[in-house]
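Researcher: Let's try something more involved. This one mixes different molecule types, so please make sure each is placed in the same coordinate frame as the others.
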Amino acid sequence: MTFTDFAFDDQLLDGLNSMGFKTPTPIQTQAIPIVQSAHDLIACAQTGTGKTASYLLPVMDGICRLEKRPPISALILAPTRELALQIDQQVEGLAYFTGITSIAIYGGGNGIDYEQQRRSLREGVDIVIATPGRLIAHLNSGGVLLDQLKYLVLDEADRMLDMGFQEDLLRIVGKLPKVRQTLMFSATMPAKIRKFAEKLLNNPQHVNIATSKPAEGIKQEAYRTFDEQKNKLLLSLLKEGDYNSIIIFASTKEKVKHLSTDLRKLGLKVKAFHSDLKQEERQEILLNFKNKKVSVLIGTDVLSRGIDVDGIDLVVNFDVPGDPEDYIHRIGRTARAETTGTAITLVNNKDFRKFKAIEEFMGRVVDIIPLPEFLGEGPSNPLASTNKNGNNRRKKKPFRKNGQRKHFSKKKPDAVG
DNA sequence: AAAAAAG
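Model: All components are placed in one shared frame. Result:
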């Protein structure tokens, strides 16, 4: 199968060829005909599967074929600014010969950005790619020409609901024409998403190519460590290994900030990436990472989904993500497009059960690598320890009189908020 | 549990 089988507009095909697209991916093969047949669509698919082109191509083809183009033909909603920007860049590449116009609408920029966005939304632009918050701000100021829109796409719908965008999304959809084509993409399909889809979609067709299994090309490893050992272990992993491009994930912004200063003190050239940075800084860092001017990025989960950077050969989970889905997304930053990569997770005692849950979710175990000798003993495996009866059941909670609670851990003040 | 997104 080739892209010519879809009978796309010639100019769109030119753009496709110039971007080096050859063979459609499974999601594209399945989704494109559905969109072309004017049905609504729910697709369960992760990034890296060719998901973005699977809706951009038929939507852009549809726009090329409109007898009269409305001021705004398509609205694409995405959870993060980086994803919105990335989609917009893909539109620009594909649209090169078509005359289709687009703009990414998101917050965090300067007043000039806001004015440009406002003008486009009031004067018309074929495709709008937006994060919900900023689009709402524009809708509140009025004059946004969405009343003749043909296509609505919700990308990473599960992530948008997780981020509390449900009400914003419903408000946005309330401003759109009832007759339109709606396409929803989500990495997971919990009941919450299904219910949400029922509100927005009309008799949708389903496509499912999602999997709880990470790509074959990812070598997964884990180390059991105490927190005090993590920095030194990380340093040795980075120094011993022959890696060109590395992402290190940590679960909070504070951890990301601390870790990047720590690693810098240890002599590594690293950049931190999180939402406390100015949007221009975020973009510059990501650009330099893509250019390979920056080789080590330390980031929060804002980087875990949707970011498509070629050539990342190592992902380190400095701690274990709480949600197995996030683990899959994080390690999926490496081994993209048929390449290989390594994913290493540092597991302390507190995270051990979360890590077991991830293994269960994937249906496979991850090799535990012994700590390098210079680090001394790591923690022993709490689930493998045997009690005096010789079985490996975990110890029962000690009986307590009067049901009192015993405080095992005090919350650190900086761990709050 | 925290992240992100509107200032």
